[in-house]
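User: Fold this; tokens only.

Assistant: Input:
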Amino acid sequence: MNKSIANNYTPIGKLLQHMSKMYSTEASGLLAERGHKGLSLSHTALVFNLDTDGTKCTIVTKRACIKRQSMAELANDLEVRNYVKRVDDPNDKRAQIFIFTKLGMKFATDAKEICELLDKKYEALLGTDATTKIRGSVD
């Protein structure tokens, strides 16, 4: 009979990873219910960092704290689905700006509402004190 060294102990980090997966799965389902099939919380890295009047690609990438290649993949996916457009920056012809389409603005609004809904649900599970401490530790 094999015995685990940890005797079936599950570190809290593993539990939090599982909770994060549950949160993301639930969010994707709720996004799909609102007509955003195939989109997930990963797409919010772009839309939650995009100003309503548009933002330079480099700034959105910096705000999201992700690699340029990852942002390019998100942008391409959202552009193909007609959620964002890239246009030339009128102040810098070498740069491009992401702008919302009407559908993209709806996605950003829906995603924010869904995150707020799920945040309340998961805060109830974790407790207000723990949630406040976690939020306070994020830069």
